[in-house]
Design goal:
Largest sheet: 3 strands, parallel
Number of strands: 5
Distance between the termini: 52 Å
Length: 214
């Protein structure tokens, strides 16, 4: 399955539905080509981990065969790369031959009798902790970039911190640009890289709007 574009809160549900459908149609699992994914945040990682858990429950795999550097960095940062590279679903953290795994019937019998799968509970807990780590680190990086962009607007146009934030939100909404991307472009523009014309137009309008209201 080939995935391209951006994976974030706006697209995570679409991706999850597509992955679950592909998994249901497959007898062994799904191999992913993420080389066309230009952006992936913690919401995308959540989807991959969630669908992987479903695959393991069904005795299948979810593997990443190719990935854009941004995805590779995310998986490396959260120490989850190995979860999407093994040829067989891991049991107790060890890759085994599929014939050595407990049968689906036995798994269902354990569930019916309320026998907890401690190994699976530990895996789930570990995955959730890793996701929390990447959420915190991603939030720190994103917030830092936005704060820098606000500083650029404050210094360039003499805006207050609140007005700079209002300008960022306005331009983001009126140019259909994600806030973190807009912040990056503004920071880079300080070094001489021009903003796209439509972004510059909306930026000028937003700055004029907050200046008039003041």
């Amino acid at each position: 399955m080939t995935v391209s574009g951006e994976i974030d809160t706006d697209t995570q549900q679409t991706l999850q539905r597509a992955l679950r459908l592909a998994l249901a149609r497959s007898s062994e699992g799904v191999d992913l080509d993420l080389s066309g994914v230009g952006f992936c945040d913690c919401s995308g990682l959540n989807v991959l981990l969630r669908v992987r858990r479903i695959a393991l429950t069904d005795g299948k795999t979810l593997r990443v065969r190719a990935a854009d550097p941004c995805v590779e960095r995310l998986l490396a940062l959260t120490d989850t790369s190995s979860m999407f590279t093994s040829d067989h679903a891991p049991v107790n953290g060890v890759v085994q031959d599929p014939h050595d795994r407990p049968s689906v019937a036995m798994h269902d019998l354990m569930k019916e009798n309320g026998v907890p799968d401690e190994a699976e509970e530990l895996r789930v807990e570990a995955e959730e902790l890793r996701v929390e780590v990447v959420q915190l680190k991603r939030a720190m990086v994103t917030r830092g970039g936005i704060d820098l962009a606000r500083g650029v607007l404050m210094a360039s146009y003499g805006l207050s911190a609140e007005d700079a934030w209002s300008v960022l939100v306005y331009v983001s909404q009126h140019t259909n640009t994600k806030l973190h991307r807009l912040a990056e472009d503004l920071v880079v523009s300080v070094k001489g890289a021009p903003l796209p014309d439509h972004v510059q137009h909306q930026l000028s309008a937003a700055v004029a709007g907050v200046s008039d209201s003041a």
